Amino acid sequence: MATAERILTDEMIAEIKQYFPRYPNRQAVTLPALHIVNQRLRHVPLAAVVEIAELLELAPAEVQDTLSFYGFFKQDRPHGQTRAWVCRSISCHLRGADQMLDYLCDKAGVKPGETTADDTLTVEYAECLGACEFAPCMLAGDDLHPCITPQRLDEFLTKIRLAAGSRSEDTEINSTKSA
Amino acid sequence: MSELVLLANIDKENSHTREVYEQTGGYQSLRSVLAGQSPEDVINLVKASGLRGRGGAGFPTGLKWSFLPADHPGPIYFCLNADESEPGTFNNRILMEEDPHQVIEGLILSCFATQASTAYFYMRYEYPLAWQRVQSAVDECYQAGYLGKDILGSGYSLDIFLHRGAAAYICGEETGLIESLEGKRAWPRIKPPFPAVEGVFRKPTVVNNVETVACVRHIAERGSDWFRSSGTPPDPNNARDPGSFGPKLYCLSGHIEKPGCYEAPLGITVQHLIDEFGGGMLGGRKAKVAIPGGISMGLLSADEFDCRLDFSGPGRYGCLGLGTAAVVVMDETVSMIDFLHNSCQFFAHESCGQCTPCREGTAWAKRMMDRIQAGRGRWHDLDLLLEIGDSIGIMPGTTICGLADGAAWPIKNAIRKFRAEFEQSIKESNPDGYMETEPVPAMELMNLQH
After folding, report:
1. Which one of B57, B197, B350, B445 is most buried, counting C-beta atoms within 10 A?
2. Domain containing residue A98
3. What are the angstrom distances between the C-alpha of B252 and each of A163, B128, B306, B307, B336?
4. pLDDT tens per residue across span A70-116
5. Residue A149: which CATH number?
6. Nearest partner of A172 among A4, A2, A12, A1, judged by Cα
7. A135 touches chain B (CB under 8 A)
8. Is residue A133 within 8 Å of residue B90, measured between CB atoms?
9. Is 3.40.50.11540 the CATH classification of the domain at B18-229?
10. Which residues of B touch A94 (CB under 8 A)?
11. Structurally, what CATH architecture does the domain formed by B336-446 represent?
12. What is the largest CA-CA distance in chain B?
């Protein structure tokens, strides 16, 4: 049997290890490790969970248990190059969040939780994003989009499609897909 | 309008930098405390100030600190709860984004008081700008000698580490936060033992909110009498009310002309907040209800807007409490069914699943609201919803944490305060079936799933 290709790169492992001195045990590095892998791969496949567990001296089930508790980490396939959360909690709901989520999903051709066929965008709903003075709001990657309207969502879609068009191929993602 | 304290700096250019923070006296309190005061002095000062936790429960901060075991060999841990995720709430985000050094100075002072050697700054995932600003501020503090070994030559050492959450509301519950920090699912712990005795990594731990430690920084600078000079004094008719002192950040959103985070002393009324800070109702429309302090706290009807926003006020109107003082105002176009559907949806999504009454109860309530909203509600459902509301939570004694109480309160307040509206809407939308009382077939419920 051929040796399975490892998912975690040396760089990821080094970054995870930097967290060790911060905590009295390695289990506490579970969330940081999941974030590190997720940031690079846009998901945390089960094989990565096994490798994280090995690094943290845990059973894979312990890491998997934690991962599965947080709906945040996708496991089956990567989310899109941009991940957009449209808030649906009360302040945004009062200001038309449902319509905004529907509009964005419609324009992107996906349902909440799905990724566009060209891999540029995953649309999700979020519970309160803590930006209620900007309702309805959306968090896309690290950018908060305040007071979204159909027009602003159109502009957002145009922008991320342009960015995706000019982006070079992401080798880490591709290597995971072929793994 | 009274002098701004917590928000005094946020409109300044580069208010998030150490340079700007120090121009207005930043880190002077830390210097003077480390030079001349003992940890006990700081604890006594905070006790005397009457500061109560700003995260939702309103527990007296100095008292919480004094529960730490005396002469513990250590380490003692401090967890800063920056997992702000109660719907309607964003005051911590403003503090962390616009004035992170104020928070960090308060955190260092609080850690010194409790003799914590490590502080974990647990921040929710959805605050990327706050994350970046707090991390930069922490880095600046290490460079300036405010963090690390032997801070300012005092012999006291402290590290602050940021720890990022992963979008789970329950991590704001203090023992849920502790479990999450330990790398586990964020299932709250049964108390006792309280975190002060056995918290993170089984060591004595204090968990405080971001705004709470920001208040500590100002109490250290101005004293406990200053802090007690604003707010609401103890209710003479209630021996258990220690009063509600000091400035508070109110988050105002919903159908409001100028939604935002506003600072005022504890005890202003909902109406005052709407009129004097929020610029009145959006489009001049009429108000119908308001959430007094995050959705968990329940509902005030418009004729209850004379409710004082202090730790005792909302309870007098049947609400759960002040919570996070996040006021969400709804105008008369809002249907209570729509509101309650949104609330039940939130709690069904965020129940951590540990306690069966909460896991199942929030899910049942959400499915019932789905059905009512789909025009298949019955009057009987209102009693079923109230039965759930009255039987899940710490108060009836069926769950480990207060999430279920928070889920129950909007149900109880909405139906008890607006029953006639619910009944009328249900009758109109389901004229043939609104009087049914037989259980709804499971398959019919399945068909409502999106």
Report:
1. B350
2. 82-164
3. 36, 22, 16, 15, 20
4. 989 999 999 999 999 999 999 999 999 999 999 999 999 999 999 99
5. 3.40.30.10
6. A12
7. yes
8. yes
9. yes
10. 254-255, 328, 330, 334
11. Up-down Bundle (1.20)
12. 78
Give the pLDDT confidence of A31-53 residue by residue, as tens digits.
999 999 999 999 999 999 999 99
CA pair distance B207, B181, nearest whole angstrom: 12
Tell me the C-alpha distance between B411 and B390, whole Å. Answer: 9
Query: Mind listing the pLDDT tens digit for each residue in B271-327?
Result: 999 999 999 999 999 999 999 999 999 999 999 999 999 999 999 999 999 999 999
What tokens appear for A37 in the block? 């892998």
Selected residue with higher pLDDT from B440 and B277: B277
* SS3 assignment, position B242: coil
Q: Label residue B14 left, alpha or beta by phi (over 0 means left) and psi (-120 to 50 means alpha).
A: left
- pTM above threshold 0.90: yes
Six-digit token string for B247: 């400035």
Q: Is A173 part of a structural domain of the chain?
A: no
B251 touches chain A (CB under 8 A): yes
Contact B341, B315 (CB under 8 A): no
Give the residue from B265, B249, B298 showing the smallest Cα distance to B89: B249
Estimate to the nearest angstrom the gap between the alpha carbon of B144 and the chain centroid. 32
Backbone angles phi, psi at B219, to 5 degrees: -65, -40
Start-end ranges of CATH 3.10.20.600 in chain B? 244-331
Q: Using a CB–CB cutoff of 8 Å, tell me whether B182 touches chain A.
A: yes
pLDDT in tens, B58-109: 999 999 999 999 989 999 999 999 999 999 999 999 999 999 999 999 999 9
Residue B438: pLDDT over 50: yes
Upstream peptide bond of B242 is cis (omega within 30 degrees of 0): no
> Cβ contacts (< 8 Å) between A24 and chain B: which residues?
75, 201
Residues A87 and A159 in one domain: yes
Q: Which two tokens stand for residue B281?
A: 């109702």
What CA–CA distance (Å, rounded) separates B27 from B105? 6
Chain B contact present for A71, CB below 8 A: yes
